Amino acid sequence: MKQYNLLAIIFLSVLIVSCGSNTGQRKSDFIIKTNAKDNTISNNETLSVSIENPKNHQIDSVSYTFEGKKIGENVNLKDFKLGNQTIEATVYFNGEKQTVSKNIIILNNEPPKIYTYKIINEYPHDITSYTQGLEFYNDTLYESTGQYKESKLRKVDYQTGKVYQNINLADEYFGEGLTVLNDKLYQLTWQKGIGFVYDAQTLNKLNNFKYGKSKEGWGLCNDEQTIYKSDGTEDIWLLNPETLVEENHIQVYTNKGKIVGINEMEWINGDIYANRYQKDGVAIINPNNGAVIGVIDFSPLKKLVTQHQGLDVLNGIAYNPKTKTIFVTGKRWDKLFEVEIVKN
What we know:
3% of the residues lie in helices and 51% in strands. The protein is mainly beta. It has 2 domains: 15-107, Immunoglobulin-like (Sandwich), CATH 2.60.40.10; 113-343, TolB, C-terminal domain (Neuraminidase). The chain is elongated, with a radius of gyration of 23 Å. The chain starts with a helix and ends with a strand.
């Protein structure tokens, strides 16, 4: 319990936002009632839904949808996504129909597992790099860095720190996360609402893409079929790799509430590993429902790098398929750490 409380301070500060007001295109004669206490329910429970009819209309039938799926009056939540979700009821009565909706919050049914790590190797890292994105491709490390007038994209020999190739972004762009899929490299910028696509071998720019509902660009990863994008909130957006359209999203939640500030991400063995901005932990996220299933405490690493005025937070996580190990660094850190995750 002591260890979990420590991580709650380091990483898992959560936000519960009350929701649940009944809404609709106009004020409805009906109210959706559920068994969610304070409009919050765990995903190991069964959600019960009913209609309150204060005007005593003669109701012919009621149909319910949840997350856009048709449901009955009782639904097991184990296969539903976490977070703020909408129940919608269409009520048919007296030859009319009205639609009313209600939001509830679905939490994970168990707390995240707490993991530690073992350092396998240490490698040099450019102390001037404000690391935003980190990913291996063909045993070469790709890195995207931030700050206006400093942002760059580069290919690096991770063992020596030698820069094979460097592309400087225009001064107006603040570089953010990156990912490589099908020999194309995708790089985000922070607040300009635009990302860049490059040839991963040459770093020649191929085209640009604009964001959809997400307002900012933070982190990227992929599962070889879908690109996942964070925007600094609890949302992770699922992008079609052909069109780069945000087709869906998940919300990152624990058993207590939402986790905001999701930043640099990496896809590792079926899960999303994500830095949280200004925290020294990495969350392990279930990509199907957004549940934080584990947390790795990397807080001791910052003390092992050169302490200097520009030193900033842990950020940058990459998985090397060749070595089957994880690499982490931070903003303006002079070391890249190869680590093995230790499951308690």
